[in-house]
Prior knowledge:
This protein is α+β, with helices and mostly antiparallel strands. It is built from eleven helices and 16 strands.
Amino acid sequence: MKLGFLQGVYEQQGPFATVYLDTSGDAEDAGKAIELRWRSAREQLSEAGADETTLQIIDEALQEPQRTSGNRGLVIVGNSDGVVFSDELPDRPGDFSDDELATYGPVPALFPYLRMRGTRIPHVIAVVDREGADITTVRATLASKTTEVEGDADLLHKSHTGGGAGSEQRQQNAVEENRKHNAGQVAEEISKRAAAINAEAIVLAGDPQQRQLVRQDIRKGLQPLVVETEAGHRDPNASEESLQQEVSETVGAVVDDRVQSVISDFERERGEHSRATEGWESTVAAVQRGQVETLLRAVPDASERPSTLHIGPSQADIATSESALTDMGVQGVQTAPADSALVRGLAGTDSALVLVDSEKVSLSGGIGAVLRYTEG
């Protein structure tokens, strides 16, 4: 997954409090249960050194209205200036360790969040018909926005009244041209929205013929992102359940294909001893140099790994030893949990992170990378 959406988080000054909270709302006493969980996390943060200002900021954030049903969770990252990141989790953080639920340190603890996101990627969904489309923009976080794009409908209904064969043919030609015009308008709006959120997939649903017209007008650079589904139409009374299920499966398949592609790239490059590296020391050094195109991290990971890494003020300041940074003149070196430091470094160098099944690819130390370039 691309981590650019986190860049703004790491531009803020720490230290940071990171909280993962079960905010499920099915039980009658759900509100009280959430309050008790936060109280426990608050005490844990306070013991770790979190200042009262930061804790009060999170207090206030948790007072905002939450959804009232279903299993869900919430991640909040705050510092003494405010909340720097928050997002709804797709499920309760049930498999998190106590150390992951509430942390306080120099960098946000966002690796568990990325691990839990699973197949979530920024994407655009367009349900099209001859008159326009309903376009939903799904960002990297759970926030989404749906808009309607309507073309010119006046000529879309073919005339079957008098006027002769020639008149009917002209009318039909006008209708077809209007459909193409509407498809072009929809395609341009899809292209704009996909570019704005750095979409990793564009899902087209709805009328099959109109889908093809829209698809061919989407900007050339975005064409590889387009996938189609048979589900969905623009009837306002129609159930969205089948469309949502189909889109979820389609996006999941896109992610699975890309993960497999990254694994294949890594194994090929590793076999050629070219644009690949593995193991903590060499991979972290590659992150520091900005060499990493995609980092592979095995989950679950039973490998021996460093508990912490050394970091400096810049996101690219990351190393397995303090001397590796101080020898370069970096000042203010601190330690941070290894995976949290990695995410910070990757976001700062526009690198991608792919979580891979540890049974599908063998990685020394549970970590490796496909590189943009090799040295020398």
